[in-house]
Design a protein that fits this description.
The protein contains 20 helices and no strands. By secondary structure, it is mainly α.
Length: 437
């Protein structure tokens, strides 16, 4: 038995399965804890803040997310892609990270200058005093800057698949946010306090990430102009998409609010809460799959094969989720309460739409990690034309019609991303083979 056990242990297939099992277990269990803590924290904020303060908090929180998308604009993708090419050289990897950090300062400044007046106006429109609007606008800046920096500091560990320290930091940050929220909002139920409680723990996390990153990248290097130019190539390709998606990301809510009823808005929001459960899989994918795909050499024979294998896995995952929803809609809707018990059809459409969007988004992250971004002059017009065409045919005054629109537009985007990724992976392998023949 000992000889058999030793033989199994030395088997490369067993080693690979064990390695993946360990990574998935660590990342998955951590993400379950993180998502649970986030849910509890969100409920606490909702319960402890007065209605008017919660509205202001929601505006600020939404603006932070938009600012992060716009301020990144492809920066982290460029750093990940270039880092994937030099990930085994600490000095070169350090140059990539440091160059990205320097660019981040300019991006963050520009985002703050553009977004803060918009947020200030929205806060004033919804009843905030001049003092409160100023405090809320100022309170989101520390968390915003820390969020951008933390994303870059985590790249070296992701490339080396040193996932455990990253997950431990995220869990600790989630606990800190929950405790700060609990301790502060009981005594100071104001929106800017809630924003600070959510953002400040990220500063501590960044200090830990810096220590971890130094194990894999020499962060004492100086920025490099050539690396800067390469990163900006990614930014020029991805930034238009970032602007487009930051505006179109809430299309369902916007259309229902304009053309539908308040009941439709509530139903769309309730179904959207359920779809947040897919975040665990998305984070698992981004932590385990995307960095590994980014670091595959262009000379590798498995590039196209790996891309297709990932697509098959995403398809099987989506089919599983849709089938579970199809067979157990009442049990799933029970989570939302009796007011939403009759949304079986809308639930299935919502899950179908979310799975398409998830697959499309994760496929996009794969192709972007290698710099295979579709030309915005091609991709964005296709998305706009498909949206307008479907909107002309469908009844957008109902939640069902809006969800069908989302499915159609998401399917077009998914086909475009898969086709582009397949073509680029095959052509890259072909070009490499031709150059070496």
């Amino acid at each position: 038995m000992k000889i058999l056990a030793q033989h199994i242990k030395n088997n490369p297939v067993y080693t690979r399965v064990f390695e993946w099992g360990k990574l998935v277990t660590i990342t998955g269990s951590a993400q379950v804890v993180i998502q649970a803590l986030g849910l509890v924290g969100g409920i606490l904020v909702l319960r402890l803040l007065p209605t008017n303060e919660y509205a202001l908090y929601t505006l600020a929180n939404t603006m932070v997310g938009t600012m992060l998308v716009l301020a990144d604009g492809g920066l982290s993708t460029g750093v990940l892609s270039l880092g994937g090419k030099v990930w085994q050289d600490p000095e070169k990897l350090g140059v990539v990270i440091i160059t990205g950090l320097k660019l981040r300062k300019y991006f963050a400044f520009f985002s703050i200058i553009v977004a803060t007046p918009v947020l200030f106006y929205l806060l004033k429109t919804h009843g905030a005093s001049w003092l409160m609007a100023t405090l809320i606008s100022a309170s989101l800046i520390p968390g915003f800057i820390a969020g951008l920096t933390g994303g870059l500091f985590s790249i070296p560990s992701s490339l080396f698949q040193d996932i455990k320290p990253l997950q431990k930091n995220q869990v600790k940050a989630s606990i800190a946010r929950l405790l700060l929220t609990l301790l502060t909002l009981f005594f100071f139920p104001w929106a800017y306090i809630a924003v600070l409680a959510a953002g400040l723990p990220q500063i501590w996390v960044n200090k830990k990430l810096l220590i971890i990153s130094n194990n894999y990248a020499d962060l004492k290097q100086k920025p490099d102009n050539d690396v800067r130019s390469e990163i900006l190539v990614f930014v020029k390709r991805i930034l238009p998409y970032s602007v487009y998606y930051s505006l179109s990301g809430q299309m369902t809510i916007w259309l229902i609010s304009i053309l539908g009823s308040s009941t439709g808005i509530a139903q769309a929001g309730a179904l959207g809460r359920l779809m947040m459960a897919l975040n665990v899989f998305s984070i698992l994918f981004s932590s385990l799959i995307t960095p590994r795909f980014a670091r595959i050499s262009d000379k590798s024979k498995i590039l196209a094969q790996r891309f297709i294998s990932i697509q098959v896995g995403l398809l099987l995952f989506s089919i599983t989720i849709v089938l579970i929803t199809y067979f157990f809609p009442s049990q799933i809707l029970w989570i939302l309460g009796k007011n939403y018990s009759g949304l079986q059809k809308e639930l299935l459409l919502s899950v179908f739409s979310s799975c398409i969007s998830l697959t499309s988004g994760l496929t996009y992250s794969l192709i972007a990690s290698r710099g295979w971004v579709i030309n915005p002059a091609i991709g964005i017009p296709i998305n706009i034309v498909s949206t307008v065409g479907a909107a002309y045919i469908l009844d957008l005054s109902s939640l069902e019609g809006v969800l069908k629109l989302s499915i159609f537009v998401g399917t077009v985007q998914l086909i475009m991303n898969i086709t582009h990724g397949w073509f680029k992976s095959v052509s890259t392998q072909f070009a490499t083979k031709f150059n070496h023949s």
